[in-house]
Amino acid sequence: MRSSVIVFPGSNCDRDVAVALEKMQFKNQMVWHKETSLPKSDLIVIPGGFSYGDYLRSGAIAGKSLIVEEVIKAGKSGCLILGICNGFQILTETGLLKGTLLRNKNLKFINEDVNIKVMNNQTKFTSKYNLNQILKINIAHNEGNYFTDTKHLEKLKKDNLIAFKYCDENGSTNDQFNPNGALENIAGIFNEKKNILGMMPHPERMIDKVISNTDGVNLFSSLIN
Amino acid sequence: MVKQYQSNSKKNKLKYSVTVTLKKNVLDPQGKVVENTLKGKGMNNLKNIRQGKYFEIEVEEQDETKATQTINQMCEKLLVNLIIEDYKISKL
Amino acid sequence: MVKQYQSNSKKNKLKYSVTVTLKKNVLDPQGKVVENTLKGKGMNNLKNIRQGKYFEIEVEEQDETKATQTINQMCEKLLVNLIIEDYKISKL
Amino acid sequence: MDMKITDKIIEKHGLKIQEYNNIQKLLKRDPNFLELGIFSAMWNEHCSYKSSKIHLKKLPTKGKQVIQGPGENAGIIDIGDNDAIVFKIESHNHPSYIEPYQGAATGVGGILRDVFTMGARPIALLNSLHFGSPSHPKTKNLLNGVVSGIGGYGNCIGIPTVAGEIKFNDTYNENILVNAMAVGHAKKDKIFYSKAKGVNKAVVYVGSKTGRDGIHGASMASAEFDENSEEKKPTVQVGDPFTEKLLLEACLELMKDDSIIAIQDMGAAGLTSSSVEMASKGLLGIELDLDKVPCREENMTPYEMMLSESQERMLIILEDNKEESARKIFKKWDLDFVVIGKTTNSKNLTLKHNKEVVGEIPIEALASKAPLYDRKWKKKKLTKKNIELKKFKKLKIEDALIKILSSPNNSNKSWVTKQYDQMVMCDTVQRSGSDAAIIRIHNKDKAIAVTVDSSANYCKSDPITGGKQIVCENWRNLISVGAQPLAITNCLNFGNPENEEIMGEFAECLIGIKEACEFLNYPVVSGNVSFYNGTNKKNIYPTPVIGGVGLINTLSKPIDHNFKKINSIIILIGKTFGHLGQSCYLKENFKIEEGNPPEINLINEKNNGEAVLNLIHKNLVISAHDVSEGGLIVALSEMSIQSKIGVRIEKAKKLRNLTEFFFGEDQGRYVLEIDKKNLSKVEKILKNNDIFYENIGITQKTFFEIEGEVKIDTNDLFKKNNQWYNNF
Ligand SMILES: Nc1ncnc2c1ncn2[C@@H]1O[C@H](COP(=O)(O)OP(=O)(O)O)[C@@H](O)[C@H]1O
Ligand SMILES: [Mg+2]
């Protein structure tokens, strides 16, 4: 499997996700944002960080960059795309994913390990997980408060497009265990064709026992198949 | 009856806008990046952008002087960082 | 000589403000927190606050129609997320 | 044309008349306004170290592990395999008091530049924060602003903020302390220095444009606050972490080949200090064409350009024929890259503007001939008072413990640390919350441990002992996570050095630091001095802050201070005398700051530390914690709080006063959790090394218990420890 990690000025989880991909045997390439064409890839990753300083709106400026036009084309033709954190924000700015990520409800940056629940394991991104499996994954963001209109929310639910929800240790999704105020505790969503996943938690931070845990491994190993 | 009540209640509310801008010589990193991005997209006649904040504030108050007083207080207490920012209040 | 040049150059620039606000039905977490904080500080007549963005934009252009066109473009291309935000342009 | 230089202007520049006369002598003429500004920037306390230098010189700075000691942008130590660790701490106290968010943010930005200017990729950030009383009307705002400023910068640039300390004390009501430390990793054979070499080499300006920010910030940092400090407001600088990220990547990319002769960040006194420093180290001159300086505002004067403290800028001296390739790199990262001058053999700083020479000063006059003071100082009178416990009403141990654990100074800090990205870069083995953070060297099986510490109360009552104590506590914190302590950096926050008592605190603290560092082979490789902390003649407590770095050679099993399982043996290493002078117990329960700090016995300190490290390396310890503020009982409860594993501590065997035993702050002690099956091995090693130890109890389920005295559910301990910030 070939993967490409798009690097914007201000990306800062690009190396982290590249390490994860290589560990999982992807043949990975870093793609600088000024490039106008993408290398052949089965998976495109838009990493976390603060592209363009998160100025204006997080993800806004990156979402309008040249290389992203190529990403959009690839996404529309079915290429797998994973947007993590800032990557998720960028994907919503491009319209590849619907909705938006508002400021955290406490208006503070939040970095902690949270529990999330796998809401759909019938996808290329999540097939190695069990349905309703609870993962402990690190989040680190200012704007992770997912918001969308009622119509789209209904669609997300009906078509099983919610990937992960924040929850407590037992999998219950309630307000108390909603770190950032996201609508219905949503931590990640798919597009309609389920070839694009955007998520706020950082699976690439959870691939090494010495550092944290290995709950993120199966996301990458689901993809390699 | 109902109508009258409504119009009354309307009268009791005043709405203002507050624009907050960075003082003249203070660096505006956001504005600068936005400016460069727009120029990079071919907007060559763009000379300068500065970014600020904008608030729409409704207060339950009939008296305009009192209302602006309140809003001024809000600005100085919370909304504006007077060390690096200026602000302007207008009635909407 | 110098003076004339200056006044000329001034005429070539137009300045606009753009205010960007969240659409009515979109949650405004920032505004909410600001509102609660102010109420907590005893500002009881505060009814409602919504927070938005503000830009001051200078363009090198003489023609106002063209200038507003350019600014409109900037808004739609970058400054505004039309899915969740509205905007308004005014001449300064 | 030029402004006339009056006494008032001289004073406004923070220069004494005598110093001005000196300038006239050195120049053999009157300086012009621009030159005066340059002198004032270079000769102020912050840049010249005129009051501290003779004391700093006494610190031990050498050792097998030291690659670069003080004198460069940051210190460098060797951790083997061609890996080097570059680190330094710096204060941003005054700017942070004026504008907490930007002050703290630019503090982080500044210290990061000191580290990456030497060729290191920053891998960790730390901070030491001291605020006034929590009930002081300004504290909340300052705390919020500083914390989000630190997070705002570090999170955006993508370097984990992994450790630090936050303390509250009335003494900082009008003068908070914000010290930031950065740690970077470099290859030993790829280190860059600031010494210029060769004549006619291009001097290149890279990074952000120069604006009117922070003009005279460095002088501000050296001036006491008074009611008029409001006037100094416009000098606040705004940080741009995004640009710094670009600058970091661009510099590291340029450093891959050998284009750079010398490189220096523009910190305090910006263009002035960076160019003078490079020229001075190389015994060269430097000529700058100020028309070329990239400016943010129109019509900036040479004075403004030379003194601006705009952030995110660097000065580089390039090898011949490297300009084009270097320019390409900076262009890729959308940064300014302008040749603004060249090195000369004139040994002067020559400034040109509009094709005219507007200033010319011998480099020597600015650097080596800067004033140097041996200020008068007074020895501290130590109190003879002993703490008599009988004086205080009897307090139940349980109540006293809860009071301490729920106090602002001892509460869990996760409200703060959650606002920092601690995981980015994916090498954080241990986040904040333990005795030291652990950062893995990327792609390797080894790691460094880092921590910062201070003890202002100890230093206030006895600066020599206090100075020793912080070094030891810092050392102990590294040992507790299984790291071999290697070297320190220090940030010396003091009051007005023109006051003999304050100068005495400074001199004596340094005596203490020196003694401890020498004994422990723990050299000082970098640091920073911040004087004039205080207002209206009220000076802060002497607050030296020590940042330490240690090495963990094999990362198989990182160790922290959370209990791991029930039925383990708890061992207390080191002797307990029950010293309560200057203790947390008295402070938090009775608001009493009396007595002397606990004695430091360097021999015990070293032996105990080495023994603990030895046990950890032999995998005989499951968790470890040093005993510091609050004494044994606080150390034990900290081990219980996160793990929610309780303890049962036996009542002390010999007849001892329990309050003294549990709350005494005697030094050189550690608590270790040991697996029962290893007990005999452990005891043998301790006995063979003549280490004093006591088996004080075992771990158990649910309850934190001291026989017959205390019994608290660990969940309650957790709650008590976690509520303060959330209600703040
Ligand atoms: N307390 C101290 N202990 C040891 N070295 C110090 C101390 N204070 C300053 N130094 C050293 O003096 C030099 C100048 O420091 P500073 O002016 O803070 O550097 P910069 O201009 O890079 O910020 C540095 O090498 C620094 O490490
Ligand atoms: Mg420096």
Topology record:
The complex is a heterotetramer, with one copy of chain A (225 residues), two copies of chain B (92 residues) and one copy of chain D (728 residues).
Chain A: E1 2-7, H1 14-23, E2 27-32, E3 43-46, H2 60-63, H3 66-76, E4 80-84, H4 86-94, E5 100-102, E6 110-118, E7 134-141, E8 145-147, H5 150-158, E9 162-167, E10 186-190, E11 196-199, H6 217-224
Parallel strand pairs in A: 1-2, 1-3, 3-4, 4-11
Antiparallel strand pairs in A: 5-8, 6-7, 6-9, 9-10, 10-11
Chain B: H1 2-11, E1 13-22, H2 29-40, E2 46-60, H3 64-79, E3 85-91
Antiparallel strand pairs in B: 1-2, 1-3
Chain D: H1 7-12, H2 17-27, H3 33-43, H4 45-48, H5 53-56, E1 66-68, E2 75-78, E3 83-91, H6 93-98, H7 100-116, E4 121-131, H8 139-157, E5 161-168, E6 177-187, E7 202-207, H9 217-221, H10 241-254, E8 260-265, H11 270-282, E9 285-289, H12 302-307, E10 313-318, H13 323-332, E11 336-344, E12 348-353, E13 356-362, H14 363-366, H15 397-405, H16 414-417, E14 428-430, E15 437-440, E16 447-453, H17 456-461, H18 463-480, E17 484-493, H19 500-520, E18 524-530, E19 534-535, E20 538-539, E21 543-552, E22 569-573, H20 584-590, H21 602-617, E23 623-626, H22 631-641, E24 645-649, H23 658-663, E25 670-674, H24 679-688, E26 693-701, E27 703-706, E28 710-713, H25 714-722, H26 724-727
Parallel strand pairs in D: 4-5, 9-12, 17-18, 24-27
Antiparallel strand pairs in D: 1-2, 2-3, 3-6, 4-6, 7-10, 7-11, 8-10, 9-11, 12-13, 14-15, 15-16, 16-21, 17-21, 19-20, 22-25, 22-26, 23-25, 24-26, 27-28
